[in-house]
Write a structure and sequence with these properties.
4% strand; 3 strands; 508 residues; three-stranded antiparallel beta sheet
Length: 508
């Protein structure tokens, strides 16, 4: 499984208030409706299964009009399953099935079928899912909107909301706070309609924001085809846990091949599994196509340009002309010209994180890894200076994920101290150790070893590890007479805590 983590255009010009509102609305509706959906879904599935089993086992029964279409469609779409359901030697499905096996009276069986049909009619008439989810066989006008805000579980919700945030926030920044929500609602309705065209007689409710989110992905592909997306490869629970710890397999890929790959997978899944998978694959395909076409229409109609000019007019008090100029050059593929503009801008404002961030994106697009690394290092230094430690660690992660091996010793030491200040002692010790190994002949290595020893002894309760660090500091080739007493005190404390008794060290 591929999980997108972030992309190059995560930072917009304004707060993405509509995207935030959509996420909060979806979460709120989920919390308000999950109990009712959890209750109704099993009941609906049970009544439907009993109708099909009874019809298959007793084809002589008269089918009430409201279930005849349901049975006929299932029989035509699933001949193998229908044949198995007709077998008198099949496994029992549940207690109700066992009871039906014992009934031989045709009248009693017909009454059971009529009763099931009445239950099905009641669910269709007043059931929550029938009213607010999207049922292709008889959709309501309201369900074209409401179905997009219903979810069946936490994983369903979180997955959709993460993709909404990834693609939606930057599209909101591009299209503004009027076009974007209108597009989102229209996309959700279009995706559901496409699903209905391919499953016209289906009585299975479709719900979730995935159709509208797929449209955001289609629009993202058209609008930002060269934007690189950082993706994590998840092969199982172990790699998922590694991802949570900031480890695991990660790579970056341009959206022009990553998103079409996802679309092809959805088309294949829809063609092979159809509605049997329980996922509305064709709604995803329809939404993706709608989003791509709508993005093309907005772009070539000139409407997007007018909206962008209006947004720029509102944010000019924060947007620097030099940054705007470089951004425009980058978007038009004039990367070398954008670099020259940014370098001139940085010469006058060397501490602009916005300029360095944009410069790093351009170097990445040019595959100029050395300059990309240098810019990321500078960004890390600026974020450390501003005490934005989360951003600094993100810079460091970007650096190491792209084969960067050694930050400047002073910067690395500051980063380690930032982790220590945030009480992330495990990470601090790990990075202190890496720093000491990378720069064995620099004074920072002594400081790193002493800090690693101190944290291992006093915070992590690992005196044996502390002893290793203190002894490594003692034998370091870096002159350390001014730290000798600290080193010796650390060794004695670690030995005492570890219960180690060693002979005094004699210096030659």
């Amino acid at each position: 499984m591929l999980i997108p983590l972030r992309h190059e255009n995560m930072e917009g010009r304004r707060w993405p208030v509509i995207s935030i509102a959509l996420v909060l609305l979806n979460v709120g509706i989920f919390l308000a409706t999950r109990g009712q959906i959890d209750t109704e879904n099993p009941l609906r599935a049970e009544v439907r299964a009993h109708i099909l089993l009874l019809a298959a086992s007793h084809p002589e029964l008269n089918l009430p009009a409201n279930v005849e279409g349901l049975v006929t469609k299932f029989k035509n779409d699933n001949p193998g399953i229908w044949s198995e359901a007709q077998s008198q030697t099949r496994d029992l499905a549940d207690g109700w099935d066992a009871r039906m096996r014992l009934i031989e009276d045709p009248a009693a069986l017909q009454r059971e079928m009529d009763s099931l049909a009445e239950q099905w009619a009641a669910l269709e008439k007043s059931g929550f899912l029938e009213q607010y989810a999207f049922v292709p066989a008889h959709p309501t006008a309201m369900s074209y909107v409401t179905a997009n805000f219903l979810h069946t579980g936490w994983l369903h919700l979180i997955g959709n909301m993460w993709f909404l945030w990834m693609a939606g926030a930057i599209l909101e920044d591009t299209w503004g706070r009027i076009i974007y929500p209108l597009f989102y609602l229209a996309a959700g309705a279009a995706a559901l309609q496409f699903h209905a065209w391919l499953n016209p007689d289906s009585s299975i409710p479709a719900l979730g924001a995935s159709g509208a989110v797929a449209a955001l992905m289609g629009a993202f592909l058209v609008r930002f085809p060269k934007t690189k997306i950082e993706v994590a490869l998840v092969l199982g629970l172990r790699s998922l846990s590694n991802l949570a710890l900031g480890k695991g397999i990660r790579f970056k890929a341009a959206s022009y091949w990553l998103l079409p790959l996802w679309l092809v997978m959805e088309i294949l899944s829809g063609a092979i599994f159809g509605h049997h998978s329980g996922v509305a694959h064709w709604a995803h395909v329809g939404g993706f196509g709608f989003g791509a076409l709508a993005a093309l229409g907005l772009r070539y109609s000139g409407l997007e340009r007018k909206v962008n000019e209006a947004i720029e007019a509102k944010v000019t008090w924060t947007a620097d002309a030099g940054i705007v100029q470089a951004t425009e050059k980058m978007e038009h593929g004039q990367l070398d010209e954008a670099i020259i503009s940014l370098q001139g801008y940085i010469a006058t404002k060397p501490e602009s994180t916005e300029a360095h961030t944009l410069l790093s994106q351009i170097y990445w697009r040019k595959n100029d890894i050395p300059n990309y690394h240098n810019t990321i290092i500078k960004l890390c230094q600026l974020h450390l200076k501003a005490q934005d430690y989360e951003a600094a660690w993100q810079d460091y992660q970007e650096y190491t994920n792209t084969s960067g091996s050694q930050l400047p010793a002073a910067t690395w030491l500051d980063l380690c101290r930032a982790a220590e200040g945030q009480q992330n002692f495990e990470r601090a010790v790990s990075e202190y150790e890496r720093l000491a190994k990378a720069y064995p002949n620099e004074r920072q290595s002594i400081l790193a070893l002493l800090s690693a020893g101190r944290l291992s002894l006093k915070q992590l309760n690992r005196p044996s590890d502390a002893l290793v660090y203190y002894k490594a500091a003692k034998v370091s080739k870096v002159p350390h007479a001014d730290w000798e007493s600290n080193i010796q005190t650390g060794i004695q404390a670690a030995e005492k805590a570890a219960g180690v008794s060693l002979a005094p060290t004699v210096e030659s």
